[in-house]
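TICKET: design request
STATUS: open
ATTACHED STRUCTURE:
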C-alpha cells in the first residue's frame, strides 16, 4: 500500500555512499527531501542531482536534508558523487524495498519495452517524520525550485 501525505513516512535502513547504513529516522528533527531517481550517470538524473547540489545550501538554511535514492550500488553512487561534486547522501536501494514502500517501483514503458523501474518522485518529510508533500512522475526542469519553495512556504 502506498504511503499517503498526512501519514508518518515509512522508516527504512539502507547502505549510503558514506559507508554507513542510513535510516530515515536518523534525520528526525530535520525536514527531509527524499527523492527517488532511476539511475546514476543518466542525463535526467544528473540534471536533477546537480540542481539539488546547486541549491544544497538553500535547503540546509531551511534545516532540510536531501537524500537521493536509486537501485544503484554504493560504488556507482560514489562515482556519481565524485564526478558531479554532490554534497548529499545517495542511498543504495539495490533490492527496491524502499522504492516499494513509497510505491515508486512500477511497470514502465520505453520504446515499446515494458520493465520494472523507479518512477522519478520526490517526498517532503517534516521534522516529526510526517509525509507532507509528494511529487510523482517528476519532470526535472524547475522541480528542485518547486520543492525548495514548498519548504520555504510551508515548513
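STATUS: resolved
RESOLUTION: sequence designed for all positions
ATTACHED SEQUENCE:
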Amino acid at each position: 500500500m502506498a504511503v499517503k501525505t498526512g501519514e508518518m513516512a515509512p522508516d527504512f535502513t539502507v547502505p549510503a555512499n558514506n559507508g554507513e547504513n542510513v535510516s530515515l529516522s536518523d534525520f528526525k528533527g530535520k525536514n527531509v527531501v527524499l527523492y527517488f531517481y532511476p539511475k546514476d550517470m543518466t542525463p535526467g538524473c544528473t540534471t536533477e542531482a546537480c540542481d539539488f547540489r546547486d541549491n544544497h545550501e538553500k535547503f540546509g538554511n531551511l534545516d532540510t536534508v536531501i537524500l537521493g535514492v536509486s537501485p544503484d550500488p554504493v560504488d556507482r553512487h560514489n562515482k556519481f558523487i565524485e564526478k558531479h561534486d554532490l554534497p548529499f547522501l545517495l542511498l543504495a536501494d539495490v533490492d527496491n524495498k524502499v522504492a516499494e514502500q513509497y510505491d515508486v517501483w512500477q511497470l514502465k514503458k520505453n520504446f515499446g519495452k515494458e520493465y520494472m523501474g523507479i518512477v522519478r518522485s520526490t517526498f517532503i518529510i517534516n521534522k516529526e517524520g510526517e509525509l507532507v508533500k509528494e511529487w510523482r512522475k517528476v519532470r526535472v526542469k524547475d522541480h528542485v525550485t518547486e520543492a525548495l519553495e514548498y519548504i520555504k512556504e510551508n515548513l
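CLOSING REMARK: The helical segments are 43-54, 56-61, 74-84, 97-101, 143-154. The mean pLDDT is 95.
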